[in-house]
Amino acid sequence: MTTTNLNKTYLPPVAELEPQWYVIDAADQRLGRLATEAARVLRGKNKPTYTPHMDTGDFLVIINAEKVAVTGKKRSQKVYRRHSGRPGGMKTETFTQLQARIPERIIEQAIKGMLPKNSLGRKLFTKLKVYAGPNHPHTAQKPETLTISTIPGV
């Protein structure tokens, strides 16, 4: 009688690891709900072949980042910080100021915070492409439209 080792790590077949491309329209979508769905797709948790220690996710293009919505008083009270590394080098901006300057960074930071904090997370983050307007240069990859079935805008 032979026994099988049930403690083997699952490895998906190489043929199933082919990533797909998706487009999400961020216009009038809530920031947090958009970010959680985007992080799930990047991580590959929406697939049956999900493996925690591997990159099984897909590429993601987010358009209309300038039209993302937030609820409550976040437009004036949410603060984004960055530091130059020098003494006194902390710079802060509100949501409205950052959205006027670099609207892509708001979505990028929200999604990056939901990915693993290691080399896998850094690799997954390179599969995210965010654009302020409705146009993107990834039409050659034939991305599919991904609709998020959460509550729309404010």
From TrEMBL:
Top-level taxon in the UniProt lineage: Bacteria
Entry-linked InterPro entries: Ribosomal_uL13, Ribosomal_uL13_bac-type, Ribosomal_uL13_CS, Ribosomal_uL13_sf
GO BP: any one term: negative regulation of translation
Keywords: Ribonucleoprotein, Ribosomal protein
Residue ranges, annotated region (Disordered): 135-154
GO CC aspect terms: cytosolic large ribosomal subunit
GO molecular function, one term: mRNA binding
Family annotation (PROSITE patterns): RIBOSOMAL_L13 (PS00783)
Biased composition (Polar residues): 142-154
Annotated Pfam families: Ribosomal_L13
Protein name in the entry: Large ribosomal subunit protein uL13
